[in-house]
Amino acid sequence: MSRVAIVTGGSRGIGAAVSKALKAAGYKVAANYAGNDEAANAFKAETGIDVFKWDVSDYTSCGEGIAAVEAALGPVDILVNNAGITRDAMFHKMTPEQWNQVIGTNLTGVFNMTRQVWDGMRSRKFGRIVNISSINGQKGQAGQANYSAAKAGDIGFTKALAQEGARAGITVNAICPGYIGTEMVRAIDEKVLAERILPHIPVGRLGEPEEVARSVLYLVAEDAGFITGSTLTINGGQYFH
Ligand code: NDP
């Protein structure tokens, strides 16, 4: 049997590495993305993985997107809630738009997706949900009150839902990456990265997207049924929680 997986934000960065690792391990994979058609089409051409465009912050679009994936690949067994954005600002300058966009994608998006695969997983008595949170949801980060709140919310959501899914064969876990070398991190000013971020990472480098992907594989495995409600930190030793 080949399980079906959706990876939100699965066409770039960490999500792309997760999509590729799942495919290589024999899963049927649908990679969702928001709007960067060029990147998504290049990803599809490179990997042969089907890409599906919808905005995770919109409940109805998520339902339509999931239906399209299920029509193409079959019922969804695995959901990796990876889509995420930043809209950084010190709090005294943060706008309601910056707050709402980040909460809408990084937290409400996780609800929108999970809610609409949940009933199917419950009825089939199997599900694997992995929520990509962040070190900054664990420790908080100045300039990211919106992002830290959303990512901390993802951890609470994970713990609550793990309890609800346990008897139905559904595991729900969170991964908290530290600084991983994707476009999101490369957008950080080089001087800030060199002087204020790298010195705090004991391993002395950024993480690789593939290093997050291998943990997703571990958590979604058939024999990972006793791992639920956990928060896995992957941060080069930067912060322990
Ligand atoms: P990238 O910016 O490289 O890629 C983001 C992906 O998410 C893209 O595929 C993008 O689609 C998609 N996306 C963004 N918004 C939406 C939306 N509303 N609906 C659907 N898809 C969307 O991000 P990263 O790979 O760096 O980050 C992935 C996840 O990991 C995020 O949740 C992030 O918060 C988290 N994380 C990242 C860390 C890092 O160091 N990079 C550290 C800790 C956590 P499109 O291409 O169309 O824009």
UniProtKB/TrEMBL annotation:
One of the GO BP terms on file: monocarboxylic acid metabolic process
SUPFAM superfamilies, A to Z: NAD(P)-binding Rossmann-fold domains
Gene3D superfamilies in the cross-refs: NAD(P)-binding Rossmann-like Domain
Keyword Oxidoreductase: yes
Top-tier EC class: oxidoreductase
Alphabetized Pfam families for the sequence: adh_short_C2
Listed GO MF terms: acetoacetyl-CoA reductase activity
CC terms in the record's Gene Ontology section: cytoplasm
UniProt keyword annotations, A-Z: Oxidoreductase
Superkingdom of this protein's organism: Bacteria
Keyword match Ribonucleoprotein: no
The Ketoreductase domain, residue ranges: 3-178
Enzyme Commission number(s) from the entry: 1.1.1.36
Entry similarity comment: Belongs to the short-chain dehydrogenases/reductases (SDR) family.
NCBIfam families, alphabetized: AcAcCoA_reduct, PRK12824.1, PRK12826.1-2
PANTHER family named in the record: 3-OXOACYL-(ACYL-CARRIER-PROTEIN) REDUCTASE, 3-OXOACYL-[ACYL-CARRIER-PROTEIN] REDUCTASE FABG
The protein's name in its UniProt record: Acetoacetyl-CoA reductase
Source species of the chain: Aureimonas phyllosphaerae
Organism phylogeny: Bacteria, Pseudomonadati, Pseudomonadota, Alphaproteobacteria, Hyphomicrobiales
